[in-house]
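Protocol step 4 of 5: obtain the predicted structure for the target chain.
Materials: sequence only (see below). No template structures provided, no constraints applied. The aim of this step is simply to have a reference model before the mutagenesis design in step 5. Sequence pasted as it appears in the construct record:
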Amino acid sequence: GVLAPAGTPPQEATLPAPTRIPATRDLAGLLTVPVRIAGDTTPIPSVFDTGAGLSVATTTTAARLGLRVLPDSVDVGTITSGMARAALGVAPRLTVGPVELRNVVFL
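Step 4 output (structure tokens):
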């Protein structure tokens, strides 16, 4: 299941049927989708990584988008095979095209 830190409601999704999410490729060829957080009217082109267990946002982006930063942190592996501590944040509402997600946990 999806990580839900203590005191955080589980992640939920609402998918209209049928669902199509508009996607494009960025300059690196990565698949990007329009994401809106907490009803923001300006979509953020975001990399859609089907292999990722969690979404990732920088501390600056999390603050700008109003993500709730949790007191919890987790150890995550790095590209150099090391470990780093990462804070957890929650987006109360996030939309990806026509799909609405609630209580989305971020690193």
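Step 4 remarks: The radius of gyration is 14 Å. Strands lie at 12-14, 24-25, 31-37, 44-47, 68-77, 83-96, 99-106.
Proceed to step 5.
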